[in-house]
Amino acid sequence: MPVEKLYRLNTATWTLDYSAATQLQQPGEPFPGWCPCYLLEHPEGLVLVDTGVSHEMAEDPLSYGPQGAPHMVDFVDTLDLSTGKMPTEHLADLGYEPSDVDTIVMSHLHTDHAGNLDAFPEATVVVQKDELRYAFWPDGAQRLFYLEGDFHHLRRLDADVVAVTGEYDVFGDGSIVAFPTPGHSPGHQSVEVRLESGTVILAGDAANSRVGYEQGLVAAFAWSLEESIDSLTAIETRARQADADVIVHHDPEDQGRLPEPPNALH
After folding, report:
1. Contact 155, 117 (CB under 8 A)
2. Would you call 35 helix, strand, or coil by DSSP?
3. Domain membership of residue 83 as a residue range
4. Is residue 266 part of a domain?
5. Model's pTM, two decimal places?
6. Each residue's pLDDT tens digit, 16-30
7. Quick one: which of 195, 193, 190 has its CA closest to 213?
8. Domain with 178 in it: what CATH number?
9. CA distances from 147 to 7, 46, 65, 110 (A)
């Protein structure tokens, strides 16, 4: 059964230097990246892909999570929360409660994707095993982007976490399939969504901009450049085989091609 509706739910806009978002291009120019998540309505349940930026973290990074996030103080100055809402607010606008969400598929656990996870304690969280392990012990520049306040609750014994290796078909019908696209982070994954109108691939951060996706220019802080390039090739191949539209997660123009809620792709 295909997905009945795909909603794009923006949580904030985060402005980076363009050369950080798209490898060494246009240094000094701003890149106002959207920070959305996606709600998928399927006959067998509701699925979120990512959970966006935590407004709680943005408003008080020093007190966020068990250890705080003092290194985020300067970064949150580049966040514009007025351009989005918390996912729970978006859901309320659409007539849903957090408990209505059955599954959350995480592209990865960077803070612009994993904020607000704890707002959905009853949902099953699907994440690549490599990503889950690395998130608690990151190294290098990646340490900036993993905040314990976003995902520390996933270690609880009662947390419903599915740590996957390889592809994962959420409902077993090919309508929502997560597939590994490592490079941006060790366990990054993208999501293929089959709708009545056609197939969409939510590429996540395999590239941060449309130019980056088309020219193989990934984030300057990518965990692995080689794996990033391989993953872009894999997405392009999959998109060609499925005649799918690829949506680059942070690209303003790509996000602008998706309907503004309460409208949705069908």
Report:
1. no
2. strand
3. 5-256
4. no
5. 0.96
6. 999 999 998 999 999
7. 190
8. 3.60.15.10
9. 26, 26, 8, 7
